[in-house]
Amino acid sequence: MTDPGDRTQALLIQISREKPDLAHVKQCADALLECLPGASEEARQAVLEQLKPGLEHTHPQVGGVVAFVCGAIVEVSRTIDPLPIGQALVASAIPVLQGVIRFHELLEREYPSTDENEAEQQDDDFEVDGRLIPREVMDKIATQDHSALQSWFSQEGWGLVLITVLSRSRELRKIAKAKDNFRESVERLSHSGDFLRMAMLLLDDVILLVLHPDTKQGFQLRMSGVADNFQLHILLADLLIARPASGLMRRLIGRKSGGLPGSPPSKSVAQVMWGQGRPYIEEAAHGVWNLYDWHAAKHWSEIVATRGNSHSDHWIWGEGIPADIPEWEGMLVILLGEPTYSRSFDAARRFPLLIPTVVIEATLSAEAVDAWIERLRTAE
After folding, report:
1. H/E stretch holding 347
2. Which end of the chain is more exposed for a tag (fewer CB within 10 A), N or C?
3. Listed residue (369, 210, 378) closest to 289, CA to CA
């Protein structure tokens, strides 16, 4: 086992200086990261405890380096509880995220996003959300709010670390959502913060009502930690489509299955989406249905008559996330219809460390499905 104690102390000495040299801080952090894979869990936990105060460093990039090391420990460790360090990371990230917001406000004031400001690229330009920003503009922002500029430089690293700890802890996701200044800061980020926003909006312990009107089959499920609707599509297909030879395997893994017609996803694609093994494989995933929100029940006969080529405003798009699905009486309602066209997409988990759970809690009778459809059809 490798003892990271000396390298931890070296990093602490660097960040405790009155004016830390960022290059030296990064060198010490890299040296510490090199020895972490061979360290014991107890040694890793000790590193987290020693580094935690450094997360509050007034220099956002220095704090970001410390945060990156903490995130790396959470990523490689399997017995360390990510909640305590996750709470510290969320709290320390708030002033950084607020700094990023101030940076974008200053940028818009000093260099408005208009066509007139799109000039020929220069070697020392900075790219900000797809725009080329001249160095003199960045220098001007630095003179007005240096912390905001440094926050912007450190944004990507902080975002990756936050996604790591949010992926590993359902309880942390609950706490982070309830922390108003964190939630509001994430929501105000530009599109460069989209993945962090998706991680914050992950749903846990929510009820799904999934109805297949054409066969009068329906299911009540409970879902947590599903990153996007592509993943949800495959998980539902793996759970709800009948597999002729799957009974023994389903019993062995303790998972109920449904009996819908169709072609279920391959075992390899399903494993990726369930969080087993690699987060990405070359094999494509294939859509099985059109997914609709509950409003589609009002137009179901027309949807069937047009083979799904109507009321696309009620489609549940794969690129979206479960939090986008409209609620109805505290549930997420999904109607399954025939696919309008052949769909394929990457067999990949958006957040590699996130392990989803989707469990069938009840299978509905045909009469119950009809009753649900009628309720939805007449709902306001």
Report:
1. strand 344-348
2. C
3. 210
Q: Are strands 206-212 and 327-328 parallel, antiparallel or unpaired?
A: unpaired
For 11-52, the pLDDT digits (tens) are 999 999 989 999 999 999 999 999 998 899 999 999 999 999
Tokens 């240096």 sit at which residue? 146
pLDDT above 90 covers a percentage of the chain that reads 77
Measured distance CA(203)–CA(370) in Å, rounded: 28
* Residue-wise pLDDT tens digits, 275-318: 998 999 999 999 999 999 999 999 998 888 887 777 888 999 99
Q: Count H helices, E strands: the chain?
A: 15, 10
CB within 8 A of 197, min separation 6: which ones?
A: 186, 187, 189
Residues in CB range of 259: below 8 A, 6 or more apart: 217, 240, 242
What one-character DSSP code corresponds to residue 322?
A: G
Measured at the CA of 294, the angle between CA 288 and CA 295, to 5 degrees, comes to: 115
Rounded Cα distance, 317 and 322, in Å? 10
At 22, is the secondary structure helix, strand, or coil?
Answer: helix
Q: Classify residue 224 by burial, with Cβ atoms within 10 Å: 0-12, 13-18, 19+.
A: middle
